[in-house]
Amino acid sequence: MIPFYWLIALAAFIIIEIITLGLTTIWFAGGSLVAFLLALFNVPIPVQVIVFLIVSIMLLVLTRPVIERKLNTSRTKTNVNSIIGREGRVTETIDNFTQTGIVIINGLEWTARSSSDNIIPVGSKIIVDEVKGVKVFVSLI
Q1: CATH numbers and ranges of domains, the chain
Q2: pLDDT in tens, 49-67
């Protein structure tokens, strides 16, 4: 009767994986399959559970990073760092203390901060020193 429970667990993990498509439960399906095979040979239940956990964790830790790299090849890279060194113009005064500042670089508007903590007035010509998240750190030319 115990092998039947492992088959149910295996089917449930596979169904959940099909629904989510996020590589979330496939590792536990592998563990269930191994535990099912052990149950067919009348291995004690505690050993089946321990092997299920060990195999599931090993599959998760050892194979998930490799498989995710293979599957996530379609991510679009933004090349945001390509604006480092580009010149732009300040459209809102850059003041790190009040956390204000906007610049135009290559026709795009960016939230800006001063690299040197200096206040940079509107109309100033700047150069991009660094990009952190959605903010550019700039200095006067």
Answers
A1: 2-71 (no CATH), 80-140 (2.40.50.140)
A2: 999 999 999 999 998 888 8
